[in-house]
Amino acid sequence: MSVRPGALALVAAALGLAAGAAGQPPDLATGERVFRDNCAVCHGAAGDGRGMAAHHFKSPPRDLTKGRFKFRSTASGQVPTDADLARTIVLGIPSTGMVPQNHLSEAEVQAVIAFVKSLSPRFAATLSPKVVTIPPPPAATSEAVARGAAAYVKGECAECHGKDARGDGPSAKDLSVKPSDLTRRPLKSGAAARDIVRTLLTGLDGTPMPSYDQVLEGDELWALAYWLAARGGPPESTDDERAGWHVVKMHQRR
Ligand code: HEC
Ligand code: HEC
Question: Most exposed of 18, 24, 58, 180 (fewest Cβ within 10 Å)?
Answer without folding.
Answer: 24
